Amino acid sequence: MKIIIGSDHAGFPLKENVKIFLEEDMEVLDVDTHNGESVDYPDFGAKVAEKVSSGEFARGILVCGSGVGMTIVANKFPNVRAILCLDSETSLMSRKHNDTNVLVLAGRRTDIETAKTIVKTWLETEFEGGRHNRRLDKIKDIESDKG
Fold first, then answer.
1. Is the pLDDT of residue 34 over 80?
2. Average pLDDT of 66-90?
3. What is the pLDDT of residue 36?
4. Residues forming a β-bridge with 30
5. Own/partner pairs for 114-119, CB < 8 Å, 24+ apart?
6. CA proximity to 13, closest of 61, 48, 65
7. Is 67 in contact with 61 (CB distance < 8 Å)?
8. 64 part of the active site
């Protein structure tokens, strides 16, 4: 599996650790800032979300200080279902029921071990389909009506 990852300056330290964890099993494209100097999170959130939206990448991971800004940016793109996860239960359910394709982590609120658990759960959990497909279809309808 290939995954795309990005962060702003506040998410940079956690992103670097998550990237090392991911590179044990997959190819990672890192599109973020490559140091801790201040940058604008929408620039990097858009890079990841655009690649997931277009289908070039099936999944992406974003990290900023709170996770909120990156989640807002990513969800502006069609076909992106981004979720801010602070625990593995949320990552599990987001995959099972919502087929999320962008995981957002809070760099200032999430330690590396928790982040690894969240990421591992998110990557290994399959979408259940069934009744959840109907709900995702409604989300797609909303996107196309607003487009």
1. no
2. 97
3. 76
4. 5
5. 114/86, 114/87, 114/88, 115/14, 115/17, 115/18, 115/21, 116/18, 116/21, 117/88, 118/85, 118/86, 118/87, 118/88, 118/90, 118/91, 119/18, 119/21, 119/22, 119/61, 119/91
6. 65
7. no
8. yes
Phi and psi of 19, rounded to 5°?
A: -60, -45
In the prediction, which pLDDT does 98 show?
A: 97
Among candidate residues 9, 64, 85, 132, the one labeled active-site is 64
Q: What angle do CA 50, 52, 54 make, to 5 degrees?
A: 70
9, 34, 85, 97: the active-site residue: 97
- In the chain, the domains with their CATH numbers are 2-146 (3.40.1400.10)
Give the residue carrying structure tokens 């599109």. Answer: 31
* H or E, element range at 25: none
- Residue 97: active-site member: yes
State both tokens at 147: 């487009």
